[in-house]
Structure formats: C-alpha cells, structure tokens
Amino acid sequence: MRCVIARFPFDLFKNEVEQAMKGIKPEPVTGESVIIGRRHYPVKQVGEIITRQDRRDFSAQEVTRALSGLGFTCRAAPAPEPAPAAEQAVPQAWPTTLV
Q: What are the C-alpha distances in Å from 8 to residues 28, 58, 62?
C-alpha cells in the first residue's frame, strides 16, 4: 500500500511491518497504539521503525491511517483517569475556653 508519512512516500506491506517489529520490545503505551501479532505497540514507535525517521517528524494520525489501511487494529489514546475528588475537610468547632 502506498502512503505518505511526514511528506515522504512509502510502499508498506503488512508482512514487512510484522517482520520489522519482530523481536522489538514494545514501549509503554501512553497514546495511540497498534496491535501487531499479540503485542500492543505505541504508534509512534512503529512509525519510527518502519520509516526510519525521528518520531518528531510525523504525527500519530499519519501512522495510524497507514497501519489501519494495512489491516492492523489501531486503538485511540486511553481516556485520562478522573482526578480523585478532594477530601472534604470537616470544619472543626473552635475550642471554647473560659476565662
């Protein structure tokens, strides 16, 4: 499949992407991810390996679009955890002192 990532054209094939990622340890997923084989990889990590470009040169959307077109399952960034509710401080009564 022909695609453009960071203004450069690439001819990508599913089996070539799988071969390129074989033996690569997945980094922790914090944003968009893709399932290759049985592993979840960050999209930017895969993009860096298959394009041989710095991951700052392309967006996750570009790589996600290309990998989805090849038939890989891509997932959106996980939803942020809700902030824990601040504990309500219970007002304490002022101590009374008799003079």
A: 27, 10, 11
The burial class, CB within 10 Å (0-12 / 13-18 / 19+), for 51 is buried
Cβ atoms of 5 and 58 closer than 8 Å: yes
* 35 part of a folded domain: yes
Domain count, the chain: 1
Which residues have CB under 8 Å from 48's CB, separation 6+? 54, 55
Q: pLDDT digit string (tens) for 10-59?
A: 999 999 999 999 999 999 999 999 999 999 999 999 999 999 999 999 99
Structure tokens at 89: 């401080």
Supply the pTM of this predicted model: 0.74
Of the candidates 65, 44, 68, which has an alpha carbon nearest to the alpha carbon of residue 56? 44
